[in-house]
Amino acid sequence: xxxxxxxxxxxxxxxxxxxxxxxxxxxxxxxxxxxxxxxxxxxxxxxxxxxxxxxxxxxxxxxxxxxxxxxxxxxxxxxxxxxxxxxxxxxxxxxxxxxxxxxxxxxxxxxxxxxxxxxxxxxxxxxxxxxxxxxxxxxxxxxxxxxxxxxxxxxxxxxxxxxxxxxxxxxxxxxxxxxxxxxxxxxxxxxxxxxxxxxxxxx
Length: 203
What we know:
The protein is mostly helical. Helix content is 74%, strand content 3%.
């Protein structure tokens, strides 16, 4: 590869794995809520949702996925340099997808001090105390939809190597989206507060 290709690959790897800023934001948010809030929060959710893997599994999966999708978009970008303009919807949607992906961690741990419930449409009630979980679930749906768009466009463009490298991402997001909905179900059922209070009193 020439120098431009190496620089391009480095850029896409760094951009795709640029979650250091969001991790810092998560740490700062968790500290405001209490030094052990994020730990208790994650443990309480895992106790409710038995399908939820431990934290190290999430870390391992993302460590594997990020390089694969970075190489996928790099190959697409490199092969399309001579055939498209500087703007390409696949690259733009990929960039939006990564930003939404990193934003998820910040949204997931957001918590309102107000524990009241607000009336919503069709007599349905939304727990605003954990509004971050709702925002994270919406964010997950957007991540899932944009990942499918990128995958489909890889197929339409006959970028089959990129397609093969990228396909694990929406497959994993299918599970992640379902998991987000499961978590919301338990939050609306009032079980999360019970698990958090039990863990807090026992600690």
